[in-house]
Amino acid sequence: MHELSVTESVLEIACKHAEKAQAKKVTDIYLVIGKLSSIVDDSVQFYWDFISEGTLCEEATLHFKRISAELVCLDCDHKYTLDDELTPCPQCGSARIRVISGDEFNLESIEVQK
Amino acid sequence: MSKNRIKIVEKILNANDRLAKANRQKFDDAGVYTINLMASPGAGKTSLIIKTIEGLIADGVQIGVIEGDTAPVTIDSDKINAAGMPAVQINTGGECHLDAVMLETAIDQMDLTPLDLVIVENVGNLICPAAFELGTHSKVVVASIPEGDDKPYKYPNIYRGLDVLIINKTDLLPYIDFDMDYFRQGVEMLNPGLTTFTVSCKTGEGLDGWLEWLKARISK
Predict the structure, then answer these.
(1) Distance between alpha carbon B207 and the CA centroid of its chain, in Å?
(2) A3-67+102-113 CATH choice from 1.10.3720.10, 3.40.720.10, 3.90.1200.10, 3.30.2320.50
């Protein structure tokens, strides 16, 4: 579990951009997390409440947008969504696949009061 | 008071990635080849390092080891020192992985000048180390037979973005239900054509291929 270091990075990025915009307060933080990025929302929220105290981001609400992991079969071009377990192509059975999305781990935007 | 939406789109681990690049520069400046060695606890990371030191010592290869441990226990670094090579220990203070900041601290404690190769032994864990770039030239995972053949399916991330896979403890194959084809199919889905060595650190079988791979990458 590395949620603490991740939460610290979120705080650092959000504060940096809020200061640049000369904001008085950050009210909302929007995160985009791909399925292949292992992170537990509740755990981030837990740390957040502690480490954001006394910063521009204090009491800001964290919003998590989850993105599914999409795979493409390199043999038949079939696209499918990764379930909890990795499987070969459901259409042709090939194990030659590539991950198209699911690695996202971004801070997409913040909402601030000026 | 007005409310504004500020678009950012920044990778959350951006700061780590930047520091990882700085680490890489330090290694390149010193002419040292570096490896991030990852595995679950007990897969044989330290055994592989010891065998690597023993296997390359005759060629005069100087190896430094950076040991990531969650607790201040020096068992691993003591073994490295006993094998005649310098080791720096990073105590992660309970953290489940090494990150670029921790590695930077360790690099500063190690004289890179005489070294040809630095092996960074990550914390034993198949999940978190996969998320943090350290700045090493390559990433190597040690899988081992007793862990079971389903690991690529359960921990897909560690097998992606990997340069070499070492399957250790092949001497145990007769005693354990480990379907090598099933295991390899999982790896192939995540990392097609991955360079793989099947070895036994206990008997020494298969280690030659790994040592040759390393020698080809050590420039000095």
Answers:
(1) 16
(2) 3.30.2320.50
